[in-house]
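User: I'm writing a short report section on ligand binding and want a predicted complex to refer to. Could you take this sequence and iron/sulfur cluster and write out the structure as tokens? A short remark afterwards would be nice.
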Amino acid sequence: MKKLPFYASGLKFSCKRCSSCCRYDAGFVFLSENDMNSLASALKIDTNVLLNLYCRWVTDFRGEEVLSLKEKSNKDCILWGVCGCTVYDSRPLQCVTFPFWESIVSSCENWELAASGCPGINQGKLHTKNEINENMKMRDQQPIIKREAFKSGIEKRSFRSTGGE
Ligand code: SF4
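Assistant: Sure. The structure tokens for the complex follow:
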């Protein structure tokens, strides 16, 4: 019989808007094609401009080069503004689905480790097992852009031109 995940009874999380996951520390915000299109629309720029001005290639834990947002010299996310996230309604899937990432909910230890850096974890709304699994499924459906795949498919990119001004 398949073992139930440690979160079979659900997990509590409500964001406290403390912003510590968006600023102060170095980190990666990985991007999918859907994220690129949504961000370009929100910023009213072309996806190629977005790529050049706001994105960088970084090496993930598997040693693969993948696309991430840049960060400012003070380590704030490049899309952080004086009033908070400047693209909140179009923020990347990684931000939308936090903390229900496979790497975090893979074990109780990883969940508690994440809780040590996020005051919203283990507080507030109870999210069911199905909701948590749905979050992870979204990541599977919207994979992070890998540099190798990007280079090989560069001439048939499906990035949408937003006709930015
Ligand atoms: S660290 Fe947690 S509580 Fe703070 S903004 Fe990020 S998700 Fe919200």
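A remark for your report: The chain has one domain: 11-153. Residues 11-153 form one domain.
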